[in-house]
Amino acid sequence: MNKLDLIETLQNQAGISKNKAEAVVRLFFDDMANALANGDRVEIRGLCSFCVKHYKAYTGRNPKTGEPVKVKEKNLPFFKCGKELKERLDK
Known about the structure:
The protein is α+β, with helices and mostly antiparallel strands and about 90 residues long. It contains 3 helices and 5 strands, in the order H-H-E-E-E-E-E-H. The protein has helices at about 5-15, 20-35, 85-90, and strands at about 40-45, 50-55, 60, 70, 75-80.
């Protein structure tokens, strides 16, 4: 399922226009992204949670040449599957 599929499902299930469904989906994902950018945790009970993990700078290696490469510190999103979703997938 992609974003367009989600918009179409919302449109059909809620009986709203495509523009309204698109606005709802855009608002939902924009708010999630803004929360993560602010360092907040996003939790959707039964489905998943997202948080931002901070990784310190380190020296890695170029796999092709073997040369050391400095990797800058970074923040990356981290996804954790919810218990109910795990159980649903294991059926």
